[in-house]
Amino acid sequence: MLKVILADDEEIVRTSMAKWIPWKDLGMKLVGTASDGEEAYAMIMKHRPDIVITDIRMPKMDGLELIGRVKEQLADTAFLIISGFGEFDYAQKAMRYGVKHYMLKPALKEELVGNLRDIREEIEKRHLARLGAGSGENGRYGFYAQRSMLMEILSDPSSVDGVIERMRRLSPFDPDEILTMLVAQVLEPDRFIPVILPALKELGVRIPIHPASAGGRTFFTLDLPSLSLLKAAEKSIVSRGGILISVKRGTPSDLIYSFIQEAGDAKEACIYDWDGHGETVKVLPRGRSEETELIRRYRAALAGEGSDASLVDDIERMFRQKELDEAESLLVMMAMRGSDYGVLFKQLGDVKDMDGLVALARSFIDHKVPSDRDAFPAEAVRRYILDNFSNPEISLKWVSENVVYMNPEYLSRLFQRHVGQRFTDFLNTTRVNEAKKLMAVYHKSTIGEIAEMVGYSNPGYFFHIFRRYTGMTPGEYIDKVRKAGEEEDG
Questions:
Q1: pLDDT tens for residues 468-485?
Q2: I need a surface site. Which of 369, 382, 399, 416 has the fewest CB within 10 A?
Q3: Rounded mean pLDDT of the chain?
Q4: Cα distance between residue 306 and residue 490, in whole Å
Q5: In sequence order, what are the beta bridge partners of 7?
């Protein structure tokens, strides 16, 4: 269920809304009410709600400041503003933070419930995309995120709380949500799962966590809000040859612990994407002193606790003693707690061989996670632009969705604060500087060819950007380069 906090300085408003909004029917839970902005902020930081309903004018901290401060910490928290007549200017300012929903007091029940339904739909769409129930790059991101977490919890059961916390930060993930895990015995999971997944989706079943198999058992974690839907899901599994072993209900944390118990001492597990394709992960043997020490040293390096000259060599030596999937499990253990951003999951998903895995381990040390954790996504984007400036698709929205998986407006503020330039200026400056380097070497090339090589598919736009950032046209710059070369030759 989605968590909601209500903030308004009028007690009668808080009390009445708390009573007559059908929270349960909306799939929501009111976790707290606040009478001023400071109380609301503290409550939000404690409960980390999915939705905040707030007035604009409140004592101690107004709603606009509240929204700004919360968005810096919890970019995906949705806000619904309920404000008095004549305060729309404040609401317009709040909309700069991505707030889409605004209502005038007194709020009508039907309109308020409609707005909450719209917000829930927006959150669920984002949730499904991030956890991989959609398609495309975001779907692969969700798959590799859960694949990495599966490695971690099987290799180190004590990591469950950390895994739950990361899931909550990476998506609108409710750690208190009650889900159902169906445990089945299946002869050939690789054939069974591609058949059962479409059948479950046809029933309207939400599947928030990817199916997995381990220890001779297959696990389906589903959102089954009614007994009839549970029976339909059970029937769907049994009718296709599965033997139902147990049905467990609980929070994600409860179900993960049950999964660990059911999987036993499995040496490997398999996680399946939404097309039913499985990927096997090796379970890292526990208690090896050399590996434990390597994990400690790597985490210390990520935390910036001094240099460790032999660390990369030791990592490569140990990795190359293992199979690729077992070495991946070790890297997850080494890096996950030092860096809980989606960058790791995406890059791990791109690894094809041991050389790539060693390079990934090295890159996370070479670009240590700053002590200010907010700097890391900005640094990741900065490095991505420097390495991929020729990609014409790069934009603030694109890197938000494909590189660091963050709210674009929030990323824009982080980037400017930590890099010292606006995103667009940094991208254009990088491309223009690279274009100047190319012109110095290939000054007989056409403007269109140079433009395409640095990421501009439209030569006219490149012409405009180049003149804006250099004070001369591309042609004038090429002439300058050519004349300088002729003078040197002469």
A1: 999 999 888 888 877 776
A2: 416
A3: 78
A4: 53
A5: 34, 54
pLDDT tens profile 336-379: 654 444 455 556 666 777 888 888 787 766 654 444 444 567 77
Query: Would you say the C-alpha torsion 306, 307, 310, 315 has a positive or negative sign?
Result: positive
Token pair recorded at residue 18: 């708390």
Q: Phi first, then psi: what are they for 323, rounded to 5°?
A: -70, 160
Convert the pLDDT of each residue in 417-472 to its tens digit. 888 899 999 999 999 999 988 887 776 778 888 899 899 988 889 999 999 999 99
Helices (H) and strands (E) in the chain, counts: 22, 11
DSSP 463-489: HHHHHHHHSS-HHHHHHHHHHHHHHHH
Length of the chain in residues, anyone? Answer: 490
Distances (CA, A) of 348 to 331, 364, 384, 386, 453: 9, 12, 15, 20, 28
Q: Any idea what DSSP says for residue 268? A: E
Cα–Cα distance measured from residue 61 to residue 42, given in angstroms and rounded to the nearest whole number: 11
Between CA 161 and CA 167 the distance in angstroms is 10
How many of the other CB atoms lie within 10 Å of CB of 198?
11
Report yes or no: 37 and 63 within 8 Å, Cβ to Cβ.
Answer: yes
What b/e readout covers 466-475, taking b as 16+ CB neighbours within 10 angstroms? Answer: bbebeeeebe
